[in-house]
Amino acid sequence: MSADVFFMDLTTTSRENFPEKLTRLLETAGIKQILTKNDLTAIKIHFGEQGNTNFIRPVYIRQLIQTIRRTEATPFLTDANTLYVGSRSDAISHIKTAVENGFSYSSMDGAPIIIADGLFGKNETKIQVDLKHFSNVYIGSEIVNANALVSVAHFKGHELAGFGGTLKNLGMGCASRRGKLAQHSGVAPRIRRKTCLGCAQCADHCPGKAILLKENKAYMDKDLCIGCAECIVRCPTGSININWNSTVPVFLEKMIEHTQGVLKNKTNKALFINFITDITPKCDCLPYSESPIVNDIGVAVSNDPVALDQASADLVNSKKALPDSILKTNLNPGEDKFKGLYPSVDWGHQLHYAEKIGLGTREYTLKKIESLTYKKSSGHCI
Ligand code: SF4
Ligand code: SF4
Fold it and tell me: Which residue, 371, 254, 258, 366, is CA-closest to 312?
């Protein structure tokens, strides 16, 4: 059975501007049926790394917040801390980055930012999934605790996943640091001794007592490592890194198993939104943004995350590539832009595995909402 994916393009008229059309899209997609009075509603978003400029515009999120308030639910903005050391790897720097990127309490109409996995990424909830790679996954607790979830993903290319959309926003984005590390690697992180200063920050904070200092260099006992990733964020020189030992299909399956964990207690209490705008080749975790691969397309909404990502990928691939991006092959409408960017990544595998474990369907019906018809204009440029 196919799922409905509701879609709006970027056309607006004097009768209905973009934010108003966004509210109509969300209401057509059933937001009022999903959210009810007093639901503490997590809006899972990526605030953008410092220096990145193509994350979702705050003005759109403000409109979403106001639309959620019409249902009498109570929204808050959330994300989990990053595994890598950057401008969002602890709750303080994460909130500071979000505010600097435009997501302040006042601009978000009084919706607060609550980092889902706490100050250092340790506020996590173990969710039983019993799937191929994991029996349990670790998710930022405040997302698990929320009564309802609205996932807002910036749909774009991604180096490891082919594209990043709703499934990745949930699976990777809601995982605690331990959950993120479990997806990226099956084993302990790696220490680059060449750049190690011997400061002992990693050893002092390692809960497994897995790191020892010998002759001013850090050494790890991998048998004692529990994969919490604490040492990665503590190291001031970036000498401890993720071990990229997983193959791409395994990485994608692990990510999707975390998506399953995130949605486990959100049956009929989640809505998924993809902003198919500023479609850059890489993730918003980068501290810069590259030229988009195709023109802005619009916004898509569904209560099926698999159908939503499939429809969004198809919309991107139906477009002609822009000349200034790093995409140099598969430029024509109908050609696979993500394969053109990352030839060794089978992006369809995340959709295939998500469908297989029951997260949704790849079959969809695209229901486009048309712009309201033009009314005699009262506005003039003078
Ligand atoms: S990942 Fe955690 S347990 Fe493993 S070495 Fe680093 S701090 Fe210690
Ligand atoms: S925190 Fe980094 S620099 Fe300090 S001892 Fe550990 S690996 Fe070396």
Answer: 366
